[in-house]
Each structure stands twice: as structure tokens, then as C-alpha cells.
């Protein structure tokens, strides 16, 4: 007859054992094994004890009695049996793994790592041992090593639910939300239709939001460092996880707008507005993109909506003024520029824009006053030079008109 050995490190492991000539030893061992499978732990302990009385060198019986003790919470007795099994057979990988697990449960993390690594020397392709080793390294604060061990466990068993769950929790605790989400998605796949599936789905829903927001923040960091390409990639990754993330849609749209990809920007702003239709800023920036594409009617519709939602938006009034200006609706442009100035009287651009209307209307003195106001407000030396040139041009034109008028008045 053949013996079966039992290891608890997350689930059962069965290995063939040696044959014994003594029928009584084999019978006691196998009965103990059946009792252990049925969770009759006291019977299992008694039967393995009987087997050991008949054969004190049976390392398998020591290991399995240790398993029964561990399941009863009697860790010291379990450790004693694992120690005895290893005295008889020092290279017994299962006893090393079980002792490592017991040491882990007692808080002896260094001892656990030592035993689990020794076990792996004798059985390198053991997903369960790598999983437990990853948990121990996690608790030791060795995050990189824990991730490495858990990933190795998964590579050896693509259905290792415990490893995926541990990896997800590890990533989540360190706010690596996109990778945590990836692990939990695998857990959800493996537990579909089973108990706990709803809890995992709820966690995934929450993590989608957290992962998207985290990728959005990372994108902002890249953008602020001048790495627009990397920022766009991160925002795109965020939107793969959470397609309705308004902040990522907005910032990707603004960056696309900046690079001249106005239609793609409009697409992002439109999706964002489907999520948040009362967002004044989104209406305004989409209007800016329509303006760049010379779609004035759509631009006006969005500017009107933006101003309706936020009547204090000076930029909205200024930009709507630009549309009216291009359509040569000068009075309406004048009104919008003037409103923008009243809301934000420190913005030199608004004064410059209104000055252009005054010039178009032939009101040079008012245009000159606005340019002078813009000159006082701006800090950019290049802009100052441009304004001074315009002021100079107005002055020359006034002098020419004055000279011409004087010539005509001479007798």
C-alpha cells in the first residue's frame, strides 16, 4: 500500500510515500490521513501517534501529525513534529515548508524565510512555497522581494488565487493602484460565481477610480516637468481604466489642443461633458477648440453655455469677444471685452483686445488709453515692446492727421 503526505500552505499537496512492510503501520498512517482530510484532527493525531509508535523513524507521520497540531492551533507541538521529521530527513522539503509556515504564524519571520528558502532548494518549482515566502517578506517590509516571490508563485501556477490576492493587497497598500487592479481582476476571473466574488468586484470598482486618479496625478507630474508625451500616455492609461474620468479627459484634451490637435481635443471634452454637463470650464475649452477650427456657431454655443454656468468667467467673455470680433460684430465684441475687464481688471490681454476694437472704430485716443493700461499691467518685456510699437504707430498716425489737417487750413 502507498502512503499520502499532507502539507497545508494555503491548500493540500499530495505526494507518494515509501512502502512499509508492517501492515499495521500502513493502516494506522492511512487512517490518520483519512481523518486529517475529514478534519477529524484528534483522531488524526491519535492514528499518526500509533503509526509512530510502530515506526519511530517515519518522517511522513511526524510531518502530518504536525499538520494536525497546526490546524488545531498547537504551533509548538507542530514545530516539535516538524523538527523531528527533519532530524530523520534533513532534506524533506515539505517539512521545511510546513515548519516555515508555523514559524511565520508564531511571528518568527527570519526563521520562516530560512526554512522556506531551504525548502525551495529541494523543490524549486513550488508555487505554494513561493506564495508563503512572499507573504513573509511582505511582513518583513521587503516589498520588492515579496513582489518577486509572489510573481514567481503565479508564474508556476496561473490559477494561484492566494498569490494574486496577496499581490493585489500589497500593491494597493503601497498605492500602486493600476497593478493592484490588474491582480484583483485576475482574482475576480478565478472566483467568478463563487463566494467572495461580489466583495472583489466592489474592490475593483473602487480601485478603478483610485487607479485612474493616480495615473492622472502621475501624468500631471510629467506635464509639469515638460514631458508632455509621457503625460499623454499616462492620461490615456488612466482612461483605459476609467473611461469617464473627467480630469484626465480635460487635461489630455487641453494638451492635445496645445499641440494643435483640435478635433481630438473636442472629442475628449465632449466625453467629459457627457459625465459633467454643468462644467463651465469644459464648455469654454471646447468652445476654444471650435474657435480654432473656425466653427464659430458651435464656439458661440459653448461660450454662451459656459458664461451661463459661470457668469464671473472673465476668460469666457474675452474669448467669446474674439468670435464676435472675427465675425466683425464689433459692438458685441466690445461689450464682451469690457465685461472681461470689469471682472479681471489686471489682465493686460483684455485691454489689448479692446484697443483693437477702438482702432477699428477709429477711436485712437481710447485705443491708446487701453494700450497704456496693458503696458502697465504686463511684465513680459517682449509684449511690452509690441505694445510700445502699437502706441508709437498710433502716435505717428495722429501726427500725420494733425499735419494734414493743418495744411488744409492754411489760406
For the biggest sheet, the summary is: 2 strands, antiparallel
What is the radius of gyration computed over CA atoms, rounded to a whole number of angstroms?
38 Å
**Strand ordering within the main sheet:** 1-2
Assign the CATH class of the domain at 1-122: Mainly Alpha
* Elements, N to C (H/E): EEHHHHHHHHHHHHHHHHHHHHH
Strand content: under 5%
- Report the count of strand segments: 2
CATH topology annotation of the domain at 1-122: Serine Threonine Protein Phosphatase 5, Tetratricopeptide repeat
Helix/strand structural class: mainly alpha
Distance from N terminus to C terminus (CA atoms, Å) equals: 138 Å
**Tally of contiguous helical segments:** 21
Percentage of helical residues?
over 70%
Low-confidence stretches: 1-21, 402-411
What overall form do the CA principal axes indicate? rod-shaped
CATH level 4 superfamily of the domain at 1-122: Tetratricopeptide repeat domain
What would your notes on this structure say?
The chain has helices at residues 23-37, 41-54, 59-71, 75-88, 93-105, 109-122, 127-139, 143-156, 161-173, 177-190, 197-224, 228-241, 246-258, 262-275, 280-292, 296-309, 314-326, 330-343, 348-360, 364-377, 381-409, and strands spanning 4-6, 14-16. It is built from 21 helices and two strands. By secondary structure, the chain is mostly helical. The model is unreliable at 1-21 and 402-411 (pLDDT under 50). Strands 1-2 form a two-stranded antiparallel sheet. 42% of the residues are buried.
Structure characteristics:
single chain; 411 residues; mainly alpha; Serine Threonine Protein Phosphatase 5, Tetratricopeptide repeat; two-stranded antiparallel sheet; 1% strand; rod-shaped; disordered N terminus; disordered C terminus
